[in-house]
Design brief:
- This protein is mostly helical.
- Helix content is 72%, strand content 0%.
- The site of tryptophan (TRP) has 18 residues, from helix 1, helix 2, helix 4, helix 9 and helix 13.
Amino acid sequence: MQEQPTTQRAVWSSKLGFILAASGSAIGLGNIVFFGANAYKYGAGAFYLPYLLALFFIGLPFMAMEIGLGLRFNRALPESLHLIAGRRGEFVGWWGILNASVITTYYIAILGWVVGMLLGAFGPLWRPSMAVPAFGMAEGALPNPFAYFFNMLSTPPTLLFVALMWALNILIVWRGTVTIEKAVKICVPLMWVFMLILIVRGLTLPHGPHGVRLLFTPNWGVMRNPDVWKGAFGQIFFSLSLGFGIMTAYASYLPKKSDCNSNAMMVSFLNCGFEFIAGVAIFTILFSLSIVPKASTLAMSFFVLPSGIARFPYGVTTFGVMFFVLLLLAGISSSVSLVEALASSLIDKFRISRLRALAIIGIGGTFISLLFTLPLVVDPSLKDDGTLGLTLLDLSDHWAFGYGLLLMGLAESILIGWVLGAGKLRETMNAHARIRLGPWFDALVRFVAPVVVFAVLAASVAQEIRTGMYGSRMATGWPPMAVVVLLVWVVFTTGGALLLSAPNKGKEAAP
Ligand code: TRP
């Protein structure tokens, strides 16, 4: 008999509590700005088909699988995978959690900047222009809000905001499900309301509907570009919080008799529904004001959309403040989910107190997040990332998000499909489900998912080789930063996972 949890595990107070928390995790910056940036980059309408295919063939099955794992084993991801494949499985679980932690550190740095921008939105952000001394730029050289952002990026108050965001995250997971539920009951409904207000605003702007047309006009030619597919699969993984170990941790707090498949569908559709309307809001704002966005998430959140809002006929401050509050609510309800997944993994494995786990995470996390605010100017012309901190962020994102999540997906599908046996997990998933999955699901997990994810990964590596490994980041006069960050990322995730998956003496001693 496999070991049973020694302590009573927390349980969500209701199904609604889980749905709010899990959809709060899924709906984040990814839905609001990243989707729009991606869709624009890949030719708007061209993005939809790959995106929907990725959702149905990969997103939904993985969501159900990750929830199923939590229901079956009642543990966070590393311990769940340990029960499937011993130490090797556990290694994969820790690897995924550590990779997600890298993402979380820069995600929380971004939330610190959101606070900085939010304060600006009460006034200075909307002034015409300001000098940016750090970059040697005079007033007028860079329009606001660009100028405001680069002035705010590394100032002492901003560092404080980053630390505060960590504190807030720790506070929200302080008592696990209890405090998380309290937070998401406020955050999640509010962000839907704000998003709906923004979409109405966008649609009623002059020419707003043009943006919608662009968003939905398919462009078949672009689909031959493997980048579009990588973008779509990456987007689905990130947006649904898959490959993070989050859904397994959250589902481990569900009552045993929960309906796995309906939970999975509800969370996925809430997430993609939100993404869909966010896309409409963003495209209407962009095209009404004929702004051509630079396709990056940061640019979209901090320059492009605020410039659009600055040109609203009225209510600039109100809508601006609302936009940044929306980013904050959506972002926090996402980041806490990883803090919880990491904390519960540490607690499950080392039997340490929650307080201790959170102290380790909070201190370590704040320190790493602050690296992304390093002010050193590496690209004074602002062609790429400007500061060292932003370059580190961009490259960490390139590896942890661009590769890490998909690698985790590949490993999960192999562990579940082949080692545990997809049919076994399907039994758990179907046990209390109204919609039961047939044997086709096993084929999907065993063959389709790994092959598709592998193909996307292989295409990305080929692309990497063609472009000299993200070559542009070597143009700033720095040593090949992409390689340096790649090494740090590999050591952190792989080395960390090796250490964490080592047999734990304290626990092994107990029966
Ligand atoms: N799904 C989130 C989004 O779309 C991303 C996310 C979820 C996340 N949990 C996270 C990011 C934890 C960082 C840390 O934005």
